Amino acid sequence: MYPILKVENLIKKYGNKIVLSGISFELYPSDILGIIGPNGAGKSTLLYVLLGVVSPDSGKIYYFGEDFLKNRNQILYKVSFASQYISLPYSLTIEENLKVFAHLYEILEVDKKIDELLNLFRLFNKKKTLTRTLSSGEMMRLNLARAFLNDPAILLLDEPTAGLDPEYIKYIRDLFKEFSQKRKLSIILTSHQLGELEKIITKVLLLKEGKTLAYGDLTELFQKFRVSTLEELYFKVFV
Asked: Record's family (predicted)?
């Protein structure tokens, strides 16, 4: 089985500051990779590089065996992203926001697709609601619905459960696991909620000051560092 994403020796600098220093990892179908580290570790920067929003100074990124730099537009039709930091047009309704992005992705049967996602993320009764009136949790769920519009093969998530109630966190977590197992969806996510993260991820990338401190399968890293929880691993590596 070939990796669906292969990252080789990524380096990113801002002036004299090295934000990413030789980052390498692989992602396979159904993998759920958690990127973990303290603030300023380079987690968000890495996601932005993987999306092509930020250009690396050196290194290679291959999606589906293809060079990302040479095939960016084609590849991004199969990749999606959601973050608590993304703002959607406040003057549009939930339904209108999704229709804008559905048009960009050239989605067929737009109304049917949107209704399916609104039901999935429990927003159907608010489809005519203006985005400006949404709570932070509802905005995050709308961002997640938007991210699933193009049926991505790879989903990048920055703090995907931010602002969500415990009930919705469990629901979203189970939803990600189901999509990963049944649809072979691969997910990369950052989160400070280590207890929740541990329940979903299969792989871990530990970053500090842009450097990889550890990378591998969750169970293997637990054995290597002689810990039994992700929180214990975090404190053993970073503190």
From this structure: Belongs to the ABC transporter superfamily.
- My answer on whether 5 and 73 are in the same domain is yes
Q: Is residue 60 part of a domain?
A: yes
- Based on the structure, what is the number of domains in the chain? 2
Per-residue pLDDT of the chain (239 residues; tens, 9 = 90+): 789 999 999 999 999 899 999 999 999 999 999 999 999 899 999 999 999 999 999 999 999 999 999 999 999 999 999 988 888 888 999 999 999 999 988 898 999 999 999 999 999 999 999 999 999 889 999 999 999 999 999 999 998 887 788 888 899 999 999 999 999 999 999 988 899 899 999 999 999 999 999 999 999 999 999 999 999 999 999 88
**Entry pTM:** 0.94
Q: Is residue 169 assigned to a domain?
A: no
Exposure string of 147-170, with b = 16+ CB inside 10 Å and e = fewer, is: bbbbebbbbbbbbbbbebeeebbe
